[in-house]
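To whoever picks this up:

The nightly regression suite flagged AB hydrolase-1 domain-containing protein as changed. Nothing in the input moved, so I suspect the structure step. Input below, exactly as stored in the fixture:
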Amino acid sequence: MLCDPFGKDKVKKEFYGLVAISLILSISALSYIAGLLVSMAGSEPLFLNHTTEKFQGDLQSHQLDFQYGKVHYLSHRRSDSKVHLFALHGPNMTTQSASHWIPNCALFDRMGNFHILDLPGFGESPIDRGLQSVPSTVSAHALHRTMEEEGVLSDPNIRIVFMARSWGAEVVMMLFRRYPEVLDLRIQLVLISPTPNLKLIAPFIKDKIRAISGLIVWGERDKVIPSSFSRVLTRFLPKFDLYILKGVSSHQPETDFPGTFARIVSEWWEKQVEKGIPTHSSSA
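Regenerated output under the current build:
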């Protein structure tokens, strides 16, 4: 019997094995893509944008004293805009701070002046008086102090936008409870995977809060706060637009998909401008 010095039979078997594996992987990939398309059908964006638009301006650092310590924030001011956006991060002390919003600064700049906070106990905002935890009340006081410093509480022509993710939404609701006069200003909200405590809303401010317009952005498969909670929120906030990111499990889509988030918010913001909401310093 002649031997096969080159192992042709073995090579053939390995070749056919590789072909079979390739076919299996191809079928699996096609099935996955088909399933993804079905799960995201009827929703924009179909393909999520991870790209971060680079912010070309400068960020100024500020630190203010308030009754529980110091609050640090970064800001970028524009002389041509009467919009002031205040961005509030979530509750994770190891990952959340003002720097969380850096991927979104180009978006904020297009909207107007913006201020991104290190809420008390986060980043460069130390707290005093032996606080073991940081309740939303403390952060609400810090936010109000920042607004006071930026002069937005005394100008009736200024448009205020609160950009709040997760627990940051609770801070905004506490601000309204502690400083109800803020609700007399021109306010809009952008809430991302929010966790507002609706029990904080006192009856005497409920109607004013329900009159606010805004936007809610949520990942359909959010692993932290179920997007089904959005139904409760939109019933309470009837003037809010809701955008559910189909198939997305991220609790922070604003930084996981900053390009997509910027497009969603920009389109919503353009509609507000079309409605006649003043955004420019020369507007009445």
